[in-house]
Protein: CRP/FNR family transcriptional regulator, anaerobic regulatory protein
Amino acid sequence: MYEDLKYWYLRDHKLFRTLSYSQIKQLCIITGFKKASKGEIIYFSSSDVPRIFLLKKGNIKIVSIDDDGNETIKDIIQKGDLFGELTLETDNKVEEYAKVLSDDVAICSFLMSDFEDLLLRNPTLALSYTKFVGLKMKRIKNSYSNLISKDAKTRLYQFLKDWAESEGAVNGNSVTIENYLTQNDIAQIICTSRQTATQLLNEMEANQLLSYNRKEIIIQDITKL
Amino acid sequence: MYEDLKYWYLRDHKLFRTLSYSQIKQLCIITGFKKASKGEIIYFSSSDVPRIFLLKKGNIKIVSIDDDGNETIKDIIQKGDLFGELTLETDNKVEEYAKVLSDDVAICSFLMSDFEDLLLRNPTLALSYTKFVGLKMKRIKNSYSNLISKDAKTRLYQFLKDWAESEGAVNGNSVTIENYLTQNDIAQIICTSRQTATQLLNEMEANQLLSYNRKEIIIQDITKL
DNA sequence: AGCAAAATGTCGGCTAATTTACACTTCGCT
DNA sequence: AGCGAAGTGTAAATTAGCCGACATTTTGCT
Structure:
């Protein structure tokens, strides 16, 4: 990969924005680049050397298999997000992999050990990274407490609001979301059965809160959710 | 407070164990010390300057109030744990406070800004701290996914196992836990109603899995849980 | 175009667990 | 010692949402 390309990729993430061109260039830590298409599975825990990944394009879901063999969606990663062993500790206990949701994705990665060295040499970056991990933790806490204390309907509403906020195209009070999730995915994210999710979505459509199809979701009036 | 005392307090947490005596002494970041007794409430978010706290003695619970005014237990902090704005970002959105569970507690604290400076000057510490926050995140993720996918009984069993492991006095296969929680607390932690928790605990007692009273819980055979 | 697989829609029975309601016990305090 | 508050025990009614079962629609593939 060309030096300039590396620079551009890293520079694009807000975490690295504070580093100068020469700093990034000097570090040269990007060691992998990968393209993949819809439905493909990318293993990243265990396997070879521990890495941190940056999703450059598209969407993926992080899925884990529990003891009973059920799939659970752990996270949805969007363009620009980091994923992988963000805690800088490898654990082989959890069996996780990523599955491509959008038509195609571009992923770049670097070695965890290289990243650690970088953090050691750039205390400011280390501090930013700590805050970044902390923010991620806060988000998780927040979404989980929703899962626990609210009913399925409220959870779906909250999920749609969050999704609309992070990715929706706003047009007045109406928001259009590119829908790369199946109803089953949505059900898993809000921790309910597929049937319940279907029922709730149809109910919302009947109440003219949104219009749903496999390509996009249009929320008529985001303020009414 | 005497310099030596400060040193001792910090030194006691594994995070600071790598720092030399002179380093800690030089930094002198402990700026607060506090004792409190059972039932007392300690506010730590919002209010004055942001701080990080270290619980030296006793047990506290972190409680938050949601929109509807219900109390939720966010975390149980044990002797030696850090708490407060561990993410190094203050947010005033969440209304959280700590409540003392044990007879009395000792808490020391330092300013978040001082701690940030310290991290900037000690990259190794910064890295350790990041991993520490990451570990905390992993624990939270794990306990939440238990909450979501398992039924109340399994959750209670898991909670008791965890509690026994972190604090229990082992004696062969039997483990004795000092019980500073009410059944209501336990119910909140495992996210069920007080009645269900009571019922399950009595059921376990009837099945001779444990003996419960307000002072202690004795698990007859930890391997059978 | 045609077929299999994946995704969506719909229905009732079933069950864990919440809710409501109340009695009893223990604790902390003056 | 005695009282109120907090904690614990128990039971019945109610319900959200899971599960199984199936029909229909849409997609991707050759």
Summary: The longest strand of chain B covers residues 30-37. Chain B has two domains: 1-144, 151-224. Chain B touches chain A at residues 66, 70, 72, 74, 86-89, 91, 116, 119-124, 126-127, 129-131, 133-138, 140-141, 144-145, 147-149, 191 (CB under 8 Å).
